[in-house]
């Protein structure tokens, strides 16, 4: 059956996925209204779905039906996704349908304003292998006067009518990102947003809605994710008569964009997913979508890396890095990354940022000898960079103080002694691309850790007639620079970082390979961070380090095995001071790295299942064909109360499974009902890695 169908008698479009359907129709006023999002329907069945009518019929209620892109128009009182003001002061839109186009799984509905030459396209795209629906909006001004765009969202979504609604979303802060929260949706407007110029540590542009009864393995879930790496806003609206909608897109409230005559504005993708299989099935569907339609190199296996930051801080030199590289190679590390401190006058966070040439005092012959030694040891070579920032104490800032975000007659707020370069400026963006391109080419850089260590402040552009557009154009410039680098250097891989997990979203993942989820490497804290991260993002893109004990952030002491087992849930790296590790620790680390390599194909490319056992026992189960990997962690437990066997979910009840390390054989029905016995060491911070293979 075609992915997109049009029912002309009912002016209705139906989009089909493998296990879901999405339907919209044209109302009498030519607005595009939501009809259905859920289980599979035929076009005729969707045509029978009645338009919702408010039970409180009065002159104080909104028009019936939910708009696919709500705009100011008539009796519409909820949050608008499109806010425009024309040159004569008129606001709002009155729709006129102009037609539609279908190209495979891509539907484009063409609309315009009835009076003004403002044209709007609503885009939908579905794939044969996914229930994810991609949506975005294109606005074009064909008038001779500019149009002020006060808000232009990518899409609005509508959940079916239910007795109650629950919302799942991610909150946090620096060192505590991706904390999962599940709360009842209040009868009100709930705004999730970042006003920081980055995706942010404090919220993530993903949310899920259910009827309050969904769990990890069962229940209907409607979830959405915005592919944008700058400021954003998602507004959830539950009205008093029982309807829940949400609208979202780039930019936060209060910004305005002047759309010049002939200019077009295209929004980022706001993707949505329905599943009847609970939160776990929703996550696995998102993971498959990221691999199949977002990542550039989904089939690659991410390497085990070493990063020098926690070992050296800013005290970086050639001899010290070579010593660390030698020890890293002994452990089986495949990628050596030198962090901050290698360039300019960078002795601390106070100076040198922006002067991207190797410090001759620390690297007398440049980076060539270190890169050569790293490769001689059998590893790839990577560098930390922070292209969007500058220290006022730098040659770059002294030469170009106008290149930073700033406003006339306002101070320039420093955070971490940094200011933000305005990459919306073509000259600043061109200079940034040039030095990155030169650096990668001259040293054959394999990997960049792209960091951004502060949000926007004084986000102005003196002399520019439309300064608010920098909020969007800066992020677009970051995308363009990354895209050009990857096109010109096909072997280059990039890790997205913003002081930890401040830039994790589907937009940045379209031009990077992995995300640094948090600066917090404490394994106990990381369990919660990684649980929230997994709601949307697959293990293949989650970078996690094993660092020293006690932990630099929390002071907590944990066993090396526990630290490794937590990091193995994604793409593990090592970030401790290897020169201070004992021979016993180095030997155990090498064994654990080898153990990870034996299972990483399953972890990075398999289906992930979240498990919960007794007390604080949690786990991930990864499945790829007949191979299963279980990583289990028990941070604390009362004396004498070891957890019971861990129930698995992704095994066949009639299957037989062998433990590849112990040789024990387990029946699938027993693993499902009674659980997998775990050989956990005594005490707190216990963990286990189990490899199973189905043999019958």
From TrEMBL:
Enzyme Commission identifier(s): 3.2.1.22
Pfam families in the record: Glyco_hydro_36C (PF16874), Glyco_hydro_36N (PF16875), Melibiase (PF02065)
Domain Glycosyl hydrolase family 36 C-terminal span(s) in chain numbering: 618-692
Catalyzed reactions per annotation: Hydrolysis of terminal, non-reducing alpha-D-galactose residues in alpha-D-galactosides, including galactose oligosaccharides, galactomannans and galactolipids
EC supergroup of this enzyme: hydrolase
Keywords recorded for this protein, A-Z: Glycosidase, Hydrolase
Residue span(s) of domain Glycosyl hydrolase family 36 N-terminal: 32-260
Record keyword Hydrolase present: yes
UniProt record similarity statement: Belongs to the glycosyl hydrolase.
Protein name, entry field: Alpha-galactosidase
Organism expressing this protein natively: Microbispora corallina
Biological classification of the source: Bacteria, Bacillati, Actinomycetota, Actinomycetes, Streptosporangiales
